[in-house]
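User: Round two. Same drill as before: sequence, then structure, for each protein.

Assistant: Same drill it is. First protein:
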Amino acid sequence: MTLPNFFIIGAPRSGTTSLYHYLRHHPDVYMSPKKEPSFYFLEGVADKLKGNGTRGWLKTCATTRKAYLALFEDVTTEKAVGEASVVYLSSEKAPAAIHRDVPDAKLFAILRHPVEQAYASYMGFRLAGREPAATFREALECEPSRMAENWQFGGYRRTGLYCRQLKRYYALFDREQIRIFLFEDFKEDPTAVVQDILATLDVDTSFVPDTSVRHNPTGVIRNPLAHFVWTRSRPIRSGLRNYLPQTLRDWAFPFFTQSGVVKPPMPEEIKQELLEFFRPDIEGLQDLIDRDLSHWLGLC
């Protein structure tokens, strides 16, 4: 039985999809063929989750231990075995579940300014055809009721409370097991971040990933027809995901976004409101990860 020995735990919309793809091309690294199995979040609770499109999303995950272990059956000589599930960062149960199975695991997180991350997540769910709220303001107003109803997504404020979330991991894992990066670092020099991770995993650091491709961009597909087809085809795509080769899945999104992806600006008043909401957590995060985040305390 093979389990991962490292996890990319988040944050959402912070470059984790690109990081997953860069790492999976390393000859000494095995990445789960499902990019986000989310098992340690879903174990025992999958059937309780609500929200638009959640049934389809669950089909792309590993909801049982048997299905999760099957993802690692093809591991051969790879020294580093990993997976990337961004729901692990905000999950209350994932840290203890991961520690139960893999107490020596290496954990990696890329953190994006929580205000930017909240809006990017909203736009991502809109792009996927899952977010019914026509405006970000409306989605934020719906957040309390959605969380009370146990929606799988829509906790746009909740997912940005990084200090609160990381404390759960630091309480269980040694500090040396956890590596935290900022999204701006990854965006500026993704190769440096990848090689830092490779060094932590004790595999060949001379590997240089192809960082020319930006995976999982955020926004709305510029071409109206392509946008309509992509969002309306979500149930079909979810159903076929497990039967299509990775190369075809990698091709699909770039094909539909050939016309480009546009990201409407976030209203300034919402920026300010969210910044004040996140301010105490950002201030705590500075001390927790020993990183100056003063640039996060101004408007992003």
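Second protein:
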Amino acid sequence: MSNQGKFIAGIYPGTFDPVTKGHLHLIRRASLMVDKLIVAVADSPKKEPFFSYDERVDMLQEDISNLPEKGCEIAVLPFNKLLIHFARDVNATLIFRGLRAVSDFEYEFQMTGMNSKLDPEIETVFLMASDKWQFVSSSFVKEISSLNGDVSEFVTPQVLNKLNKKFEKQN
């Protein structure tokens, strides 16, 4: 998707703990808008992720390799620095953020304003979650799974398998 001969790279950042079908839907849509999409897996130690950094990267790589209708090359890269610095490092000019509900907007609005102050050359693009995935979050998926609920509608089979194995070890 070139814009007058200009190569456009975008980033879709997140913790992806775990990746959901909602994330994958946004990844596919974002891939249709750029020449290269980097799915950036944040270290996020303050969030105390359930899955390790490597597990989250591996899950995303596997799910993206099976993703139909990719619009461009998609790379999965870990990062543990300021998002704007990472964007500069990978020559990205767009940051994709997903919005599920009004509750997401305030936080995203503040983050976008700060990112714009740090680097006005990097734009943020908001993608509204599909109505099918608006209520899905990684936190809900983990909580439901931890209580032996069925989350198979919200994650891929490989992620479901990893969730089941993790919770078997804890129970």
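The chain has one domain: 9-134.

User: Perfect.
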